[in-house]
Amino acid sequence: MSPSDQPSVRLRPEIVALPAYRQGQAAAATAFKLSSNENPFDPLPGVIEAVSAETAYNRYPDASALALRQRLAAKYEVGVDEVHVGAGSVALLAQFILAAAGPGDEVLYSWRSFEAYPSLVTVAGATSVRVPNRDDHGHDLPEMAARITERTRVVIVCSPNNPTGTIVTSDEFEAFMAVVPNNLLVLLDEAYAEFVTDPEAVTGLPLLKRYPNLVVLRTFSKAYGLAGLRVGYALGPVPILDAARATAIPLSVTGVAGAAAIASLAASDQLLRRVRTITERRDAAWRALTEQGWNIPAPQGNFVWLPAGEETTDIADVLSAVGLVVRPFPPEGIRISIGEEESVEKLVCMCADIVDDLP
Ligand code: PMP
After folding, report:
1. Can you tell me which atom of ligand 1 is nearest the CA of 93?
2. Which pLDDT value is given to residue 340?
3. Please, which residues have CB within 8 angstroms of residue 311's CB and are 6 or more apart in sequence?
4. Closest ligand 1 atom to the C-alpha of 160?
5. Separation of 90 CA from ligand 1 center, angstroms?
6. C-alpha of residue 355 to centroid of ligand 1, in Å
7. Which atom belonging to ligand 1 lies closest to the Cα atom of 227?
8. What is the per-residue pLDDT for 3?
9. Where, per the database record, does this protein carry N6-(pyridoxal phosphate)lysine (predicted)?
10. What's residue 328's pLDDT?
11. Can you give the pLDDT at residue 158?
């Protein structure tokens, strides 16, 4: 029987129509990969040792990832059950959305934001409600609050926002939480929290005690440099975390990933010094680009957002041709990770030429 003779399997049409996850473009060995907001530093020797010591590949990992949750609980002074871990914070986002929203329900978020949100909502069978970012590229929280309906089950707030790098301030967030019904799950996606230097930015952790509907999501992928090992964590109320745990694909945090995360927590000081290097590079790049005439929102993640509009694809091609592999979102702009020092210098230099040629 040829494939065309076979009866077609009935799949969910909305799933068949979903685009595949669009990964940051790979870079040639001579180029800089600035397309996935990764950490440019090599893993610490202590982390490599911890990974090498984890050799029981013939055994399943601890499904509850207890050792890692204990370390995180101690760090944040919360109970072990108030910590949930998953194979990256994207896996956790999927779990929380599945736990709270299904067919007929709405999930509300600002747009443009993290590309995975729309797909995760569709997979859950729910409907995305996207509220456009403000003109300054930040979240419009009052408008988001106004768009809450009886069908809204989850609101996602991303601060710093991927890809625009903007933050939500504490005041904005608290004003928002004050009007959100407390039976509506709010996910505060803080994947880039460690890079934040603006004192006005919201930090979800101290707010957890005040809001029974708040969950904070963080990751080891960015500041901690473990994107390849896939570990993220959520902090929040036990009943919500338990519901997310119930949706999880079991055993997805491997022993190797858990050991690397534990070793990274032990080396936090060293890793956070690296973060400071990146934020200094970021701020210097932002100042230089702003002086050149680019209108770039103050970046608070490990990346900058060039609102290049209709020129997005052309500019990304020019950058790529000189070995800077960036992430275009046509026709809005380009997200560029802050990586190696040389890549930032090259970026600033190229952008000076590009801005002169803009219409
Ligand atoms: N949230 C945001 C805002 C992100 O940008 C990313 C990664 N690009 C994630 C979550 C997921 O990160 P990970 O799954 O690697 O933890």
Report:
1. 10
2. 96
3. 358, 359
4. 3
5. 6
6. 30
7. 15
8. 62
9. 222
10. 97
11. 98
Domains of the chain: 18-37+269-351 (3.90.1150.10), 56-266 (3.40.640.10)
Task: Provide the whole-model pTM.
Answer: 0.96
Lining residues, ligand 1, CB within 6 Å = 37, 88-90, 114, 158, 162, 189, 191, 219, 221, 227, 232
pLDDT confidence of residue 105: 98
**Mean pLDDT in consecutive groups of 10 residues from the start of the chain, 359 residues:** 73 92 76 95 95 96 97 98 98 98 98 97 98 98 98 98 98 98 97 98 97 98 97 98 97 97 97 97 98 96 97 96 96 97 96 85
Question: What is the 330 CA–ligand 1 centroid distance (Å)?
Answer: 20
Please, which residues have CB within 8 angstroms of residue 56's CB and are 6 or more apart in sequence?
Answer: 255
Say how far apart CA 225 and CA 349 lie, in whole Å. Answer: 27
**Ligand 1 pocket, mutate which of 21, 189, 337 (most atoms under 8 A from CB):** 189
Query: Hunting for tokens 């030429």 — which residue is that?
Result: 353
Q: Looking at residue 167, what DSSP letter applies?
A: -
Q: How far is Cα 346 from Cα 319, in angstroms, rounded to an integer?
A: 9
Number of Cα atoms under 13 Å in the Cβ half of residue 281: 25
Ligand 1 atom closest to Cα of residue 219: 16
ipTM above 0.90, yes or no: yes
Q: What is the pLDDT of residue 30?
A: 77
Give the distance, in angstroms, between the CA of residue 90 and the centroid of all CA atoms in the same chain: 7
pLDDT of residue 2: 63
Nearest residue (by CA) to ligand 1, atom 13, is 88
> What size, in residues, is the chain?
359
- For residue 73 the two structure tokens come to 């609980």
Can you tell me whether residue 146 is helix, strand or coil? helix
Nearest CA to ligand 1 atom 1: 191
pLDDT of residue 26: 73
What is the rounded CA–CA span in Å between residue 156 and residue 129?
11
CA 352 to chain centre: 29
Candidate of 34, 68, 89 to mutate for ligand 1, largest count of ligand atoms within 8 Å of Cβ: 89
